[in-house]
Amino acid sequence: MSEDWKPVKGYEGLYEVSDTGRVRSLPRTIIRKNGRPIHFPAKEMSERMTRGGYIQVKLSKGGKSSTRFVHRLVADAFISNPRKLPQVNHKNEVKTDNRAVNLEWCDNAYNHNYGTINERTSATRARMGDSRIIVHAESNGVKIYRTAKAASDDTGVSLYHIFNACYSEDPEWNFLDTAIYKAVSAWT
User: Fold this and answer.
1) Which of 14, 32, 53, 134 would disulfide-bridge 151, Cβ 3.0–4.6 Å?
2) Which CB contacts under 8 angstroms, 24+ apart, belong to 109-116?
3) How many CA atoms lie within 13 A of 91 on its CB side?
4) What are the start-end ranges of the H helices in 23-129?
5) Residue 130: which pLDDT band, with cuts at 50, 70 and 90?
6) Crossing angle for the helix pair 159-167 and 148-155, nearest 10 degrees?
7) Does this model's pTM top 0.85?
8) How many Å apart are CA 114 and CA 14, to the nearest integer?
9) Do 134 and 151 meet the contact criterion of CB atoms below 8 Å apart?
10) Distance from CA of residue 97 to its chain's centroid?
């Protein structure tokens, strides 16, 4: 299977992007201020991964450089967008798979709710204690708060300190499992 290359929009004659998600510079000659030419060979652009897991490349034009998402470059070059949709979705949910066949234009709602995002978010919330019921051990007993904000308002302790204490398993502050809370509430 051959790799197709097209010019990067806005950087025609300088860079090309392939349908497999690679970006390369084109060979060029620049004349220096002193009149001497400097030759730049074609090369594949080095990639950088963002904290969010997307691949970026740095492109330069007219002495100014900018960082661009590779999936955006591929979509602009290879996927028509007659409805002028603003976002690009990775169909297989792998942010580093920037092949044109894996990308599609979409709106924010579609992109946000695509695939397994809701299941993954629910699993994370379940693991992190979605309800965030807080238990505060005091010298005269235990006090239960429905939210960390309520605990903060009542005790004057910052939300940051409460969450840090809960996550570090400080004996003074802890999350209470929702099921236990409901069971205890039923007794009272």
Assistant:
1) 134
2) 111/87, 114/89
3) 8
4) 70-78, 108-113, 117-128
5) very low
6) 120
7) no
8) 35
9) yes
10) 14
Q: Encoding tokens for residue 78?
A: 């290879």
Q: Tell me what pLDDT residue 187 has.
A: 58
d(CA 93, CA 115): 7
Q: Taking the CA of residue 146 as centre, how many other CA atoms within 13 Å lie in the half-sphere pointing to its CB?
A: 2
Q: Give the residue with greater pLDDT, 185 vs 19.
A: 19
Q: Which two tokens stand for residue 169?
A: 């398993």
Q: How many CB atoms lie within 10 A of CB 151?
A: 23
* pLDDT exceeds 90 at position 125: no
Amino acid 124: pLDDT: 52
C-beta separation of 55 from 98 below 8 A = yes
Question: Could you give the angle at the alpha carbon of 112 between the alpha carbons of 129 and 118, nearest 5°?
Answer: 40
- Residue closest to 98 by CA, chosen among 39, 145, 53, 165: 53
Q: How far apart are CA 102 and CA 90, in angstroms?
A: 6
Q: What would the DSSP string read from start to end of 74-104?
A: HHHHHS--TT---EEEETTS-TT---GGGEE
pLDDT tens, residue by residue, 4-15: 999 999 999 999
Decide: 95 and 56 in contact? Cβ < 8 Å: no
Q: How confident is the model at residue 128 (pLDDT cuts 50, 70, 90)?
A: very low
Structure tokens at 52: 């969010």
